[in-house]
Design a protein that fits this description.
mainly alpha; 0% strand
Length: 117
Amino acid sequence: MESNHPCERVSFARTQCHAFYGIQNEECVREELTEKRCYAELLCRREAVRFYYEPLRRPRGGGDSAASCSTLVEIFAFPENKDRLPDNVDNKDRKHCRGIVHELAKCLSKHKVGQRR
């Protein structure tokens, strides 16, 4: 697999997973999300930064939170990141992240990323 495209490897992993488990199977959700992240960082930089890198909230007393909206929204696929979430995540955080998810999805859809192949 020789390619210069930065998302080639993760796209191939998703394709292989779908070939093995089927396209509707939940077994490939990590591969799908990893591929979307690659394309988001490439095509939707502003939205990707907000979703993957901006802290979910600033802890009291300063410092950085290790959690972003992606940590909260994708916890079902990456449960090992649960410890990065603040203990007091609430509906305000979820609503904030929903708006960011919508912006990212809108940008990715312009580039036809995530549509069934």
